[in-house]
Amino acid sequence: MIKIVGGKYKxxxxxxxxxxxxxxxxxxxxxxxxDILTSFFLKQDNIENYNNKIILDGFSGSGAMGIEAISRxxxxxxxxxxxxxxxxxxxxxxKKILLNNQYKIINSNFENLDYNKIKNKIDIVFIDPPxxxxxxxxxxxxxxxxxxxxxxxxxxxxxxxxxxxxxFLEIFNEKIIGxxxxxxxxxxxx
Length: 190
Known about the structure:
Blueprint: E1 2-3, E2 13-14, H1 27-43, E3 54-58, H2 64-71, E4 76-81, H3 84-97, E5 103-107, E6 122-127, H4 137-141, E7 147-158, E8 169-177, E9 180-187
Parallel strand pairs: 3-4, 3-6, 4-5, 6-7
Antiparallel strand pairs: 1-2, 7-9, 8-9
């Protein structure tokens, strides 16, 4: 079990599937990620922080990132994962903590995301794939159709992996925590 670390659902427990199919973002890493995001919002004079933001939690696993964002004020999260057994656990976590109108779970892999199922522009994207998954510009570019102009994309990869360069995004922060590299991107304006 892991816990939500901030917001109105702080302390809520999330079930994590047994085995090694899911590598949930630890409490410490989630706290750092959300502290960096909050700091970024404040530097942008965005006192709303997460309020009314639409989230996409890719490779959702337990749903910790999306549920954490809603706990802190985001209005909605699209969760997606391709593994049906993981989706079963994700549904339980969402039903236990969130309201039905706060989320949608999509059973799909990252490359075959059906954009017709996403009705809102995405403000924050969390991507935490298995470490052996190769994140590159082509895989991120598919998000262009559904992201807001002021989108933030947070990618977690192995600390040994090369930081993906994505031509339409710029890195505004990067952290290495143990075996994980966390990269924060914002959209480039040209």
